[in-house]
Amino acid sequence: MKTWVITGGAASGKSSFCKMLQSLQPEKIAFYSSDETVHALFEESSVKKELVQLFGEMVVNATSGKVDRVALRQRVFNHAEDRKVLENLLHPLAFERLTELRERLSGDGKTQLLIAEIPLFYETGREFPADLVILVAVSPAVQRQRMMEKRGLTSVDVERILDAQLPLASKLELAGRVVWNEGDTDLLLRQAQLILHQVNSPTCTLNPLEPRP
After folding, report:
1. Residues 161-197: tens digit of each pLDDT
2. Residue 15 annotated as binding site
3. How far is CA 171 from CA 18, 67, 211, in A?
4. Which residue among 14, 68, 84, 157 has its CA within the 20 to 30 Å range from the CA of 210?
């Protein structure tokens, strides 16, 4: 079984690309999302307890008992040291869940490819044995526009988020493949098909998919 990491900056379209990849051969392609994993971790009592110890009771809603993600985000993006503390808590746990999933899937006899969406793959500096790292990218101008229009963020919030991420130029140098996502969904699908066709090795049972004419 192969493992591909899909990474990229905020609002680049990573999730859409992952869904398209999986839809091409859903019976053979499995999907992992680090964002969904982190959301699940926030529900674990041990993680919530650790968050309170690190950042105070204000990061957990007293009524619902759930992690207040808005309060936590404001705290960590206003304090770089706090952001590192949070990453050091969550990222090892998220990679641990990914490793466990890969071990389970490798023995199921049907999964040929695991695609792992990890937005901060390069930023974490972690060594993970991926067969391929695909960068989904857009220009900085398009990225800022999408973050403000689709996520309702202010320009100040956008810059804080981008400052915490590796510059696009650095990611372009590191990536094994690049998907440029400033076109429509049809173009994104064609790129997904083309990558499956180009990268499949002779020993992989994934059927190559030709891009549509």
Report:
1. 898 899 999 999 999 999 999 999 999 999 999 998 8
2. yes
3. 18, 31, 26
4. 14
